[in-house]
Specification:
By secondary structure, the protein is α+β, with helices and mostly antiparallel strands. The protein has a single domain, classed as 3-Layer(aba) Sandwich (Glutaredoxin). Helix content is 51%, strand content 15%. The radius of gyration is 14 Å and the shape is globular. The mean pLDDT is 96. It comes from Pedobacter fastidiosus. This is Spx/MgsR family RNA polymerase-binding regulatory protein.
Length: 115
């Protein structure tokens, strides 16, 4: 299992703490250090929807002008933006056996999906 995110994100921290507390082995992929591929983003967008993968609540997105935000109106443009602005990816994303199964952190969903 791989958990994708950035280490200073509170939601990622909650996820990692939950996994450790439940003795679930995982590998952590830090977007900031390792980056992310367009192929991986495309997979996640196809699973969760590009509008969900693009975190519009975060500071990275809010720093854009309304005009810049309005130009990101499809999956291809969202992926192009996210490759260069990994902090704008909704996180964490959890993959098991190469398939994205969870996004964000919800105790109940983690419990249902991973235990």
């Amino acid at each position: 299992m791989i958990v994708y995110g950035i280490p200073n994100c509170n939601t990622v921290k909650k996820s990692l703490d939950w996994l450790k507390a439940n003795h679930i082995d995982f590998e952590f992929h830090d977007f900031k250090k390792k980056g992310i591929t367009a192929e991986k983003l495309n997979d996640w967008c196809n699973t969760f929807g590009w509008e969900t993968v693009l975190n519009r609540k975060g500071l990275t997105w809010k720093k854009l002008t309304k005009e810049e935000q309005s130009k990101i109106d499809n999956q291809d443009l969202a992926i192009e933006y996210l490759i260069n602005n990994t902090s704008a990816i909704k996180r964490p994303i959890v993959e098991k056996n190469g398939e994205a199964i969870l996004m964000g952190f919800d105790d109940d969903k983690y419990q249902q999906t991973l235990i």
